[in-house]
From TrEMBL:
This is RNA-binding protein. It comes from the Bacteria. Pfam families: KH_KhpA-B. Keywords: Cytoplasm, RNA-binding. Residues 78-87 have a biased composition (Polar residues). GO terms for molecular function: RNA binding.
Length: 107
């Protein structure tokens, strides 16, 4: 995932991926530079949908659910809407690669 995203964006040094693993599956949270959001999401969300589809296929192949969350960059007007003070509890978070996720899913 990291390799693909870095190839799409103009600011690859700002690409960050965090992983949360729990009983529901794997949640990958993607953070990119504000100027790169359009490239990652694509027209009408087509690029983001394609990335999510690939991740779902990888998850199905490894009997796990894999979801992608794309975080709004700081300073984004859209990101300020609907913000709440409570943060979700995260049982397990670390920077990772897709290969790490596949290894973890295979056990």
């Amino acid at each position: 995932l990291e390799y693909v995203i870095k190839a799409l964006v103009d600011h690859p040094e700002d690409v960050k991926i965090n992983r949360v693993v729990d009983e529901m599956g794997v949640l990958l949270t993607l953070s990119v530079h504000q100027e790169d959001m359009g490239k990652v999401i694509g027209r009408s969300g087509a690029t983001a949908k394609a990335i999510r589809t690939v991740l779902r296929v990888v998850g199905m192949k490894n009997d796990a659910r894999v979801n992608l969350k794309i975080e709004e960059p700081e300073g984004s007007e859209r990101g300020q809407q609907g913000m709440s003070d409570s943060a979700p509890s995260e049982p397990y978070v670390r920077d990772t690669t897709v290969d790490d996720v596949i290894k973890d899913l295979k056990g």
